[in-house]
Amino acid sequence: MSQTPPEPHLTLEDRLKAIAYQFVALYERWSEDRQLAAKQGADTAELVQLLRQQVDAFGQLEPAVRARVAQSIHQAASESIQSVREGVEQQTREAVSQSAERLTVSIQAAERTLMTYQQVTRHHHWQVIGVAVASTITTSLLLVWLLVPRPTLPLSAEQVSALQIGTLVEKVWPDLSKKEQQRWLKTLKAKAAAAPVNE
Questions:
Q1: C-beta of residue 100 within 8 angstroms of C-beta of residue 75
Q2: Which of 61, 115, 191, 194 has the highest Cβ tally under 10 A?
């Protein structure tokens, strides 16, 4: 059996360089994550600003709807006065009836418009809240995934060699016959029993 040469021991300076390199890499990852979080915060602020604009637009819409209703009422009243001037009772009743119907339709249309805008505003409100919650959770998970180090163990050259041989045997093993597999297992058990235990 050939003995493998001992691994060179790292000096204190080499260890400090390795720690400094890992610290710099971790700092760079942290900087990238911080920039990503800042960008997501800016996106959330833009969405909140958009919601505010929608709410302001809704507030500006209400006077316009009132003006439209007032205009419809004024128009209906003018038509009614004109009918009364003509002195025809039947025409007056029809005009008042038509005006009332148009007024009712205008009011219903205005109510539907207001309800539609309220629903749209509520929908946008919930969308903004949902996006804010989702981006917060995504950012948190991303930060945890990026900042939590993955555990690794250093392998010796002998362990790496054994791992590579094991991988090759694993690929070839299904192609061997049962008899060859048994012969290999016996040989490996005998060598394992004969090999001294390293402490």
A1: no
A2: 61
